[in-house]
Here is the input.
Amino acid sequence: GDSVTQMEGPVTLSEEAFLTINCTYTATGYPSLFWYVQYPGEGLQLLLKATKADDKGSNKGFEATYRKETTSFHLEKGSVQVSDSAVYFCALFAYNQGGKLIFGQGTELSVKP
Amino acid sequence: DSGVTQTPKHLITATGQRVTLRCSPRSGDLSVYWYQQSLDQGLQFLIQYYNGEERAKGNILERFSAQQFPDLHSELNLSSLELGDSALYFCASSVAGGQPYEQYFGPGTRLTVT
Here is the structure.
């Protein structure tokens, strides 16, 4: 079945460092892809999304490009801040499974000042 | 604030008991989703309702059931609780279903089974 694999955390970076969180997926067809973020004690919030190959989603300095050839949707940010500390989830929208979101295991990011 | 409300915020109960978790979707959203988040299973989709009808089912145990009412709020019922049911349960809503609309998540209900 469809699945999402993320790089394991936790990831610890210094403020202003470059961030990459890897995400790859397995799916039949061409799913839509998402990054959600979960701040401590809160629910998930949509960070960005891409609905077709080569689309780039971006928001709050974060970017991810839908790469069909490598089945990847890596999250990047050029300069992280302490306030970016959170858990990041990659997800795909499974059209062929009733339209549910399938999430990766989450990657915890900790940014130190 | 996503506009999705969940009650209660915390729930502590004993094995074998039954609990009901409640969710009110964002105004105007017709679809409601339930997810379970645990350390060992991660974030798992349980079930989706659209305008009162069950639309999709995921890894939901037979001891669990859900429904969506005419006013669109939803309830997740968990019965014969086991220690392994301890988790964070999220409700999310979207304007409709079947398409990759943004899902707005509530703050979650933390269930502890002792």
Chain A touches chain B at residues 32, 34, 36, 41-46, 49, 51, 89, 93, 97-106 (CB under 8 Å). The CA atoms of residues 25 and 98 of chain A lie 18 Å apart. Chain A has a mean pLDDT of 93.
